[in-house]
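User: Sequence for Glucose-1-phosphate adenylyltransferase below. Tokens please.
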Amino acid sequence: MKRNVISIVLGGGRGTRLFPLTYSRSKPAVPIAGKYRLVDIPISNCLNSGLNKILVLTQFNSASLNSHIKNSYHFDIFSKGFVDILAAEQNVENESWYQGTADAVRQSMKHLEKYDYDYILILSGDQLYQMDFREMLDFHIENGGDVTIATIPVVAKDATGFGILKSDDDGNITSFYEKPEYDILDGLKSEVSEENKHKGKEYLASMGIYIFTRTILKKMFEDGAGDDFGKDIIPNSIGKYKTLSYQYEGYWTDIGTIESFYEANLDLCQDLPQFNLFSSSPIYTRARMLPPSKINGSYVSKAVFGDGCIIMADKIENSVIGNRTRIDKGSTIVNSYVMGADFYQNTTEIVINDRSGRPNMGIGKYCYIEKAILDKNCYIGDNVKIIGGKHLPDGDYGTHSVQDGIVVVKKGAVLPSGTHIG
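Assistant: Structure tokens for Glucose-1-phosphate adenylyltransferase:
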């Protein structure tokens, strides 16, 4: 089946709900699972689906994202594949920046004219899932779709937080409700599998993954269909174009908040995590050529380690430990995500810091860290205690912030020896 497809990954806006992780980077550039970035997920799904013409649209805090993509994705000279950046730009025709997800694609359409494609796959850069897009494309083509939206069945409790689509028995979307009120949900049930029906998952939530037939999307833009896919384009396409629901049955989560980010990472530590890092479909990322991690005298249970770590902790449990993390003796890490470091300190600097009492990069001696996220390049002294929980009020506290009881230590923060949080 002919699949001339170009994939577009949306680079995200300000990402305020993921602050402070998005203080100096865009959402797709946030580190996940100890060694990846969020943008690696949609790009890897494309590559594993045989789709190798990929554009990433960027605008806000894009420097680290641009650098990661430039250093990660290279194709040989005989390949027609690419992963390229399309940065927001002002020009003589349009002096404004992107006004929404659809406007980002609209402003980029002129750059797509040099490519041969019949379908456009639109993806978010801040979701965790594994999907073979070829199956969705086949569904779109076989059913003569103009627009196909990937949907996932959810329970009533979750439905109020999503855009909910109602479809008929043939998969045609008949109505759309953005974050509907709980009392109108009964009329929004769609046909789902018996297994999902038994679980109460009878509401189809939009996953923010779209396939458009090229000519249809161009017509929508020419007709001024709106600036946002979820708020404008999709609702306006129902009844006017053949708009289909492609039901996805696997694991999918939107990394939109600190809590969802924290839970998604810690789930990777379970015996059978919902997101399988060990499948035959690899997650691609930058090859850093780091040494293997070294662990000495530590009790470790349900932990995920990146590369190049030096671990002398007493205990690490239910935690993700990122690349180049250093944890000194006597320390305990529980239910936390330590992102690691971008570089190693040299031995001279470490000796000088030890003599002067300044913390080294990493986690010092006899620390206790629980329910926390430590961003990259943190300097944590000795005898530091960080204990997250609902007893902590949300807010920003300079070196760290608290959201939903989760302590987030900011990138490059210095916590002197003896610091107590929580």
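Residues 294-415 form a domain with the UDP N-Acetylglucosamine Acyltransferase; domain 1 fold (CATH 2.160.10.10).
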